[in-house]
Amino acid sequence: MKPSGRFFVLKIWAAGCALAVVSGAGLVVGFVIRRGAPALRPSLLFGAAPPWHAVFGNVPVFDGLWPAVLGTVSVVLLAVGFAVPLGLAAGIYLAEFARGRTKQMLSVAFDILAGIPSIVIGLFGFSLSLTLHRFVSPRIGPCLVLSAFCLGILVLPYLIRAVQSALEGLPLSLRLTALSLGAHRVQNLRYVLLPSSLNAIATGVILAIGRCAEDTAVILLTGAVALAGKPRSLLENFEALPFYIYYVSSQYTSAEELERGFGAAIILLAISLGLYLIALSIRHRIGRQAFYGR
Amino acid sequence: MKGKPAMGVKIRLQKVSFRYGTRFVFQEVSVEFHEHELAVIVGPSGQGKSTLLMCLNRLWEEIPGARMEGEVWITLDGRPRCVSDPSFPATTLRRRVAMVFQTPNPLPMTIFNNVAFPHKLMGVRDRKTLEETVRKALAKAYLWDEVKDRLHEDARHLSGGQQQRLCIARALSLDPEVVLLDEPTSSLDEKAARVIENLLLDLKRRLTVIVVSHSTDQVRRLADRVFRLQEGRLFLDRPLADYLSL
């Protein structure tokens, strides 16, 4: 086959694969929306409680997903809030300061951490809660902050690698520009290297948000329960949408209950999309501030 | 030729050797560049011409695995200083020995912010001072008239030649005494290159200018003296008259 023919085949194959991935994702989302759309009513979120009073008042929601929505958003924000600063710092250290054996050893350690199944991290969290319960305070058990901490550990290696590869991928000419103008290394990092890596870092954060929002194994063992109500404290159990979806899909007793599970999946997708848009807007603002700020 | 540079000598390299890991790029290079001189360094690719420039402003220190031995003396503010000594602050040195790279490298900011950037790093916040600095620097680089109405546009939207003059303006804004240019016109068309060459001829009246070039025509048009870096050695090339007769 001529080189031009081989290139054509490669192009068709690559385009076909890309299309298959998009179609697969579209199919899943379409299926979930089709099955869950009939359940999307205010009562899915708020049960018998009046929505306004459920959101802004203290009216408890007994038969709706509102507490699970609040639980999911809380656990994702806490986990990302814990993991992003740590991941950013560790990624910067690996890319900019670590050299030789230290860098090699840390890279291997983070790769191993990335490969640990989430159920194992959940078990670690559960064991941690037992230890804390026994040696620190009997009040401590599986709870919101423990789930967020474990989810943070789960996404930390992805964040670190995202930051590291974003910084290491910058061309030498860009690295040297500010330095040649008298910037010291911290200024170079702050004003040139990090703003130039924002896109790749934001992608890492967005993936981390998605991973935190969907993971069930970790929260199952570290704090999520079926009926906890709105999250009231960091040290209490909470409800979460992925846990609800898992619970309903494995134990549903009627078609209507399964439909509510699909409805919950749509809400989870919407929350992920909302957090994704917030992350994009923060990236945009930081980017503008960094490059165009006066 | 030892120690501090004599009167009229701006830069003295004394037995400067450079290596990446165990691979030597050049060894025991000793050379003097004069005040208000436009010196051109020529030689085959990969012989270390850019690296030699980076020895003058210690930018090599930012490249992992690089090592330099020997001494570099530069007369700054009328005083000979051993700038290769680690006790001499690299940030101060790089403001006085400015560098322009082969490919124009405006930062992803506005035209104004690109030129104001090094001054902001030094803590200058006064808007009026910054505006005056930016105007003067852009004028020195023959760019003010072309961009004065679009200072707050993204610098990457300028043409290649304008971008390179912006980079020169940014370097000149720091009021350097030496300007190093690494093939500054190699990515530009003939017309844009000529504008920059005229600018360099103008600059040498006030500064010491060292240019790496591959173009014989450019050497002929610009050089006061020509040095050749080849096989790890730097030597004064054939007399300039030979270039003029080429």
TrEMBL record, chain A:
<keyword id="KW-0812">Transmembrane</keyword>
<feature type="transmembrane region" description="Helical">
    <location>
        <begin position="191"/>
        <end position="210"/>
    </location>
</feature>
<dbReference type="GO" id="GO:0005886">
    <property type="term" value="C:plasma membrane"/>
</dbReference>
<dbReference type="InterPro" id="IPR035906">
    <property type="entry name" value="MetI-like_sf"/>
</dbReference>
<feature type="transmembrane region" description="Helical">
    <location>
        <begin position="106"/>
        <end position="127"/>
    </location>
</feature>
<feature type="transmembrane region" description="Helical">
    <location>
        <begin position="139"/>
        <end position="160"/>
    </location>
</feature>
<protein>
    <submittedName>
        <fullName>ABC transporter permease subunit</fullName>
    </submittedName>
</protein>
<dbReference type="Pfam" id="PF00528">
    <property type="entry name" value="BPD_transp_1"/>
</dbReference>
<dbReference type="GO" id="GO:0055085">
    <property type="term" value="P:transmembrane transport"/>
</dbReference>
<feature type="domain" description="ABC transmembrane type-1">
    <location>
        <begin position="69"/>
        <end position="279"/>
    </location>
</feature>
<keyword id="KW-1133">Transmembrane helix</keyword>
<comment type="similarity">
    <text>Belongs to the binding-protein-dependent transport system permease family.</text>
</comment>
<keyword id="KW-0813">Transport</keyword>
<feature type="transmembrane region" description="Helical">
    <location>
        <begin position="12"/>
        <end position="32"/>
    </location>
</feature>
<keyword id="KW-0472">Membrane</keyword>
<feature type="transmembrane region" description="Helical">
    <location>
        <begin position="68"/>
        <end position="94"/>
    </location>
</feature>
<feature type="transmembrane region" description="Helical">
    <location>
        <begin position="262"/>
        <end position="282"/>
    </location>
</feature>
<dbReference type="InterPro" id="IPR000515">
    <property type="entry name" value="MetI-like"/>
</dbReference>
TrEMBL record, chain B:
<dbReference type="InterPro" id="IPR005670">
    <property type="entry name" value="PstB-like"/>
</dbReference>
<dbReference type="GO" id="GO:0016020">
    <property type="term" value="C:membrane"/>
</dbReference>
<dbReference type="InterPro" id="IPR027417">
    <property type="entry name" value="P-loop_NTPase"/>
</dbReference>
<dbReference type="InterPro" id="IPR003593">
    <property type="entry name" value="AAA+_ATPase"/>
</dbReference>
<dbReference type="GO" id="GO:0005524">
    <property type="term" value="F:ATP binding"/>
</dbReference>
<dbReference type="GO" id="GO:0005315">
    <property type="term" value="F:phosphate transmembrane transporter activity"/>
</dbReference>
<keyword id="KW-0592">Phosphate transport</keyword>
<dbReference type="InterPro" id="IPR017871">
    <property type="entry name" value="ABC_transporter-like_CS"/>
</dbReference>
<feature type="domain" description="ABC transporter">
    <location>
        <begin position="11"/>
        <end position="246"/>
    </location>
</feature>
<dbReference type="InterPro" id="IPR003439">
    <property type="entry name" value="ABC_transporter-like_ATP-bd"/>
</dbReference>
<keyword id="KW-0813">Transport</keyword>
<dbReference type="GO" id="GO:0035435">
    <property type="term" value="P:phosphate ion transmembrane transport"/>
</dbReference>
<keyword id="KW-0067">ATP-binding</keyword>
<protein>
    <submittedName>
        <fullName>Phosphate ABC transporter ATP-binding protein</fullName>
    </submittedName>
</protein>
<dbReference type="GO" id="GO:0016887">
    <property type="term" value="F:ATP hydrolysis activity"/>
</dbReference>
<keyword id="KW-0547">Nucleotide-binding</keyword>
<dbReference type="Pfam" id="PF00005">
    <property type="entry name" value="ABC_tran"/>
</dbReference>
